Amino acid sequence: MEFQLLGAVEAWEQKSQLDLGPRKQRFTFAVLALHANQLVPVDRLVDLTWPARPPRTAHHAIHVSVSRLRRAIADAGAGRCDADIITRGSAYMLKVNPLSIDVHRFRAVVRGAREETDDTVKASLLRHALSMWHGPPLADVTTPDAAAVLCHGLEEARLAALEECLDAELRLGRHASVVDELTDLVAEHPYRQRLQALLMLALYRCGRVTDALDAYRAARARLADEQALEPESRLSDLQRAILCADPALDAPLVRSPSRTQLPHEIWSFVRTEPFSEDVVVDVRDLSKCYGATWAVNGLTFTARKGEVLGLLGPNGAGKTTTLRMLSTVVAPTRGQFCVAGVPGTRHNDVRKVVGVLPENAGCPGHQTGLEFLAYHARLFGHSRGEARDRAARLFALVGLGDGGGARIATYSRGMRQRLGLARALVNDPAVVLLDEPTIGLDPPGQRDVLTLIRTIAEARGLTVLLATHAVPEVERICTGVLILERGRLVSNQVMT
Ligand SMILES: Nc1ncnc2c1ncn2[C@@H]1O[C@H](COP(=O)(O)OP(=O)(O)OP(=O)(O)O)[C@@H](O)[C@H]1O
Fold first, then answer.
1. Greatest CA separation found in the chain?
2. At which residues is the DNA-binding region annotated (predicted)?
3. 63 or 450: which carries more pLDDT confidence?
4. I need a surface site. Which of 56, 332, 369, 415 has the fewest CB within 10 A?
């Protein structure tokens, strides 16, 4: 489930929007989501909803709203515990993965951008974070009083991120492309002196020296007339530097970064792992570029024996490309990896230690499941008899029971996924790569397949990398999660 607070308040499960009810009910939801995983007293919800004079029925109205919200979430999640509103005394808490809420994702990406030393990456992460905004926070549910209490800090965070982004873009020599945006921003926020300074610098670098000096004069007059303030030294120093054409103000020479200047470290703000003998997957700076698109950029992580690591991200985040590189189907543009001690450059050896369930695994409908598995066991060099035994064992392991004699064409989607999983295990791999293994399955089918994956991983000490765009899948079975956005790792967490 995905929740949007930056703009109109909305909740989405897959592609359907949840009905969060009338305005006050959506407002209650928004307050709980802003304080995800924290208790919010009913009294506070009442004060925020009716700041002037709450009606006598106010507490009751909040209880009714919460119970309707709870039902809407449960119905949409079809029984999966994706998010839930729990009661503790006279307080409520929305229990949810905070990264399914845009406000918390925004803050996480901005935090990551601040740690980034490469301005290209920093600017692109900040632009991405800013793109999560679809309007003022809680736009369709809040009142001016409540917005002043709940949203002021958020709006300030957006402006600070925007200033940092424009600053990085100016350092990258992009003055021509940001000057109009800066002009609009200064008109909208006339007292933000950092924006004024950025505009003056952009104008100067565009060769518009008079406009840069006019901008300073206008800013100084406005500050004096309306705020009785003097400009900060950053503005007056900049004006002096412009007047004497200080070379320090010149636009930087834009060079394409050399290989050694590219960021090799990802920012992992939760999980850091020391090297250990247990490490079965070791990925360093793995990157893939298609034309101008970095499908995966600078991915670094490790996975230990027995770990079920989720690769979580929206469409196009780079999950499939990562798995395709690790299964040696696609060659990395940069970086390296090692699986079970085998370097990624030794393709044939990697394929012996890796099992793969691709996103759209095709199975020949005319074969029986057992024939299909035995065929693949033969490809890994097993004798005919061994291949048959192995096929039967795996068939039972994935819970396909007695259906071995039936043709695959008669299998349900869930049975095909189980078969695909069995095929991924046919070579006794150390690592299994699963790309959206539950796609197209109904909720009970999804639960079954996920439980099966976890059980097999535990029983066999397998390391599993599971690509998915569904937060609940990760919560259900993963021991850790890597969150990808536009090819970059934005978070690396242990699941608790
Ligand atoms: N063969 C290709 N040629 C060109 N671009 C590609 C190719 N494969 C992937 N891409 C691009 O790389 C980016 C990452 O794609 P990828 O399929 O790895 O993402 P994903 O996270 O698996 O997405 P999804 O959930 O939609 O499967 C996308 O912008 C995609 O268009």
1. 92
2. 1-96
3. 63
4. 56
